[in-house]
Fold this sequence. Notes:
This protein is of the alpha/beta class.
Amino acid sequence: MNKRRQQLVIWSLGLLVTAVMLGLGLWQMESFQNQGQQALIERMHEPAVPLAEAAPVGQMPADGYGRTVEARGEFLAAQQLTVPVHGDATQHRVLTAFQLPDGSVVPVERGIAQGAPAAPPSGETSVRGVLLPSEGEPGSELPEGQIGSVRLPRIAQLWDQPLVPGFVVLDAELARAQGLTPAEVTLPSNAGHARNQGYALQWWIFAAAAVAATVKLSRDAAKGTGFMASGQQSVEEPGDNVDNSAQLSTDDAVRTMKTGLEDRTTVDKPPVA
């Protein structure tokens, strides 16, 4: 097997092994993400927990985001913001401050409205919905009374009361009762089983090692060194043997002719007087 053919075989096997390992890593990562999403969906449908338990004021929730929460308090109609729905300038998410008994407020996304939103219920009432974390930075400035996203640091600058570290998306039944279209719940990303993520990283490390080994073996095959040297010596091309034999025969002939000439010179030389 010549060197080029050896390199071709090495690269073919190396790329095949690398592709298999990359595929296994992607499969493990997909399992990791699917498990996390499924866990969030199951948590969202668990019985509601008190908002004060899931998201205490002044503390980051340890395991509260994505849970269904409930609380009693009062909507503050004067503290209401709208968030444009992406892709539809006629629709707005309606965000109203909901004051809790301790004086803190939680932003409640009551639903989606076209045009002027309906007023929130007056007096003491209950809310129930999914607790979500602060959203990202909006892309552009908006008129007064509108914000580009439910970004809690921005809302904290507009409202004076202590702010709960999260906002609540009202459930579909309560949203319809207030004359609004239920808002879509975008669950936060969550980790699945750490074991699957570890397996994915492990397969990708193996894939990188396979590429490195392929490059090394290919270079050794080209130079005839290292691990590939013994293999090349044991599978030499037939032409190489013929050339070596011919070279040996020529050398033998030259030595024979030289010896004959020396013997003849010795015989013909006259004796010394």
